[in-house]
Amino acid sequence: MIKAIPVKNEKELKEFIELPYRLYKNNRYWVPPLRRDVYNLFDRKKYPFWEHAEREMFLAYRDKEVVGRVCAIVDYNFIEFWNEKTGYFGFFECENDPEAAVALFKAVHNFHKDKGMTKFVGPFNPSTNEEVGFLLEGYFLEPMIMMTYTFEYYHKLAEIAGLTKAKDLYAFYIEAKNAPMERLERMCSAIRKRVKDLKVRPVNIDEFHNEVKKIQEVYNDAWSRNWGFVPMTDAEFSHIAKTLKDLIVPELVIIVEIDNVPVGVSLTVPNYNFILKKLNGNLNLPGMLKFLYYKNKIKEARLMIMGVKKDYQKLGLEGLMVFETLKAGMKLGYLSGELSWTLEDNYSVNNTIIKMGGRLYKKYRIYQATV
User: For the whole model, what pTM was predicted?
Assistant: First the structure.
């Protein structure tokens, strides 16, 4: 018999966090996150997202064994921004057990009904600014940093529980050797001639605090009407910036300015999953030594943020940032990378990536259900 119960104590929190390490133990593609980071993500005092959101975490038991988990989330900033009563679900993991999945999603449904929501979407872990989606295509490839890997049968479980497709997300792969660099250089040269007082530069680490403010300004303007977007608070952005500061390579963080005003930004991060794969979720002394040893052996990167303020779109600035990133990456020894994620119906961005040598190689699906 299946029971889905809320997480109420430290023992149940540990069971919630440890479940994927057991489920994916023999899966060669899953990359175990650092347990420390997962605990911090659920800590209301350490993770600023919870300042404007509430949650209920559920575990599914078959007899006395945990067979599934899920988290129901209400983000009040999303509700205020979009003026719609939509909740989230996230952190879904489950054995191939339809009865358990139905029980978990029923718990999510009831949570959102009690909160006055009219529907819920997900998985968001815990929002669109973190890991999202069930993997739909690309099961025989490891995920890049901050991208999900999930079992193929999750789609069947979601559909049995009454969820339907909300949106697909795309991930593109690009190899530096296949990028049309000469054509891109001609295109970017024309943009530089056409746009007056244009400056394209890497982030200045010595002025990191001020640079973060500029990046946040662009981010919250450029993505403001994208599906699922919610502006990040100052505390959220500072938290992410602090997390990434020691991980970024300055040459791979591009800022575009016109008349000294920041109008575009792209953030590319080395694929640290290459190292996480070797740590098994623990950053102890041997793990730290492995991190230092393998850090300079990473040959892939992920372009995870790219955007231009609305008033400056359609000037070709996205192509300019990709070109500068490719040049810098090749110089630093990165051979290939991922551009992700994009919305399936963001045709202009997707076509731009394809023209620059990217190929669609993974898809992810977001689901929804009415309450």
Answer: 0.95
